[in-house]
Amino acid sequence: MKKNVLITGAAGFLGSHLCDKFISENFHVIGMDNFITGDISNIEHLKNNPNFQFIEHDVTEFVKIEGNLDYILHFASPASPIDYLKIPIQTLKVGSLGTHNLLGLAKAKKARILIASTSEVYGDPLVHPQTEDYYGNVNTIGPRGVYDEAKRFQESITMAYHRFHGLETRIVRIFNTYGPRMRLNDGRVIPAFMGQALRGEDLTIFGDGLQTRSFCYVDDQVEGIYRLLFSDYSYPVNIGNPHEISIKDFANEIIKLTKTNQKIIYKELPVDDPLQRQPDISLAKKILNWSPIIGRQEGMQKTFDYFKKLPKDKLYKSEHKDFSKHIKK
Ligand code: NAD
Ligand code: UDP
């Protein structure tokens, strides 16, 4: 009998790659999504796969699954700043009510649950690189607070279920991850720059471009998450690529890679945009024997090759789509 795994956010970027990974490892996957930021085309290739089942559902409503469930991976949540600024209440709800529903489901089914947390729990960090024991520097009432605090609550309620109910829980703190199936218009810096290069627009740097990020290729991220799920470690673990770069240097790398003739233009820095971000992955190395193997050059090339092949309508689709039909039942 195959083990059953529920993956929420299955039609999203990371969720869809996780569906592929678990199917390739011989699991039966139940994907769940309400398409608020996801895209059905990310799981189209699984439509006729007997080891994949899809349920369209908003996880902030009671989640009902028939039969046995062995594992739950909770990846449903808007993840890009422009998404969670546009749908702040849904972002808070999926991290809080949605997580509560999935923890309840895990308890009822005696399933192990892994929760997708984020480097954003560290906010604009005063400790660099960020280690798991750093408590963070988050502006609770700023515009990004809806995401950061939902994720911090998510970690707290997960640990409460672990301590109080003895639930088997895992928490991954994901640092900026990229690759094929990101939404070209989701506003995150990689699709933003690559989309601009493909449309023949100037590359927009927010602020002076001296802020840093560290980008992890999706295959490395998925492998880290997989190893964490099957480890016996219940506390948060950073998974990301420590290779740090400033956004300005990164824009220049993208110009070289895409061979665009466009220039860089500067726009206002969004409120509370973290100045620096780099994961300390010593813990993941030690307990999961994991570290990333795909460098930025290789990963960016794969990602650009994917974006280049997208149909024209995806390239020019407006920044925000109509979410209304997915919010109300
Ligand atoms: P994404 O937007 O591509 O995917 C999220 C998916 O969740 C979408 O398909 C969306 O429709 C779905 N969803 C949102 N709310 C839902 C709800 N109420 N019910 C059902 N489905 C819902 O984003 P992603 O980059 O794949 O992120 C996935 C997870 O990983 C998120 O929890 C995010 O916070 C976390 N994460 C991602 C990154 C990254 O760099 N990609 C970094 C840190 C954390
Ligand atoms: N950024 C930018 N230009 C863009 C999009 C993003 O300069 O068109 C910057 C953004 O201000 C941030 C960094 O790139 O400093 C990474 O942004 P992203 O939205 O990818 O994710 P974050 O790490 O901030 O969650």
The largest pleated sheet is described as: 7 strands, parallel
H/E element order:
EHEEEHHEHEEHEEEHEEHEHHHH
Into which percentage range does the β-strand content fall? 15-25%
Rg (C-alpha, Å):
19 Å
Strand order in space, largest sheet: 3-2-1-4-5-6-11
The N- and C-terminal alpha carbons lie at a distance of 35 Å
Structure description:
The chain has helices spanning 13-24, 81-86, 88-109, 145-165, 189-199, 218-229, 247-258, 282-288, 296-308, 312-316, 324-327, and strands at residues 4-8, 28-33, 52-56, 71-74, 112-118, 169-174, 177-178, 203-206, 212-214, 216-217, 237-239, 244-246, 264-267. The chain is of the alpha/beta class and 329 residues long. The strands form 4 sheets. It has a 7-stranded parallel beta sheet, sandwiched between helices. A two-stranded parallel ribbon has the order 7-10. The chain binds nicotinamide-adenine-dinucleotide and uridine-5'-diphosphate. Residues 8-9, 11-15, 33-38, 58-60, 75-79, 94, 98, 116, 118, 174, 176-177 line the site of nicotinamide-adenine-dinucleotide (NAD).
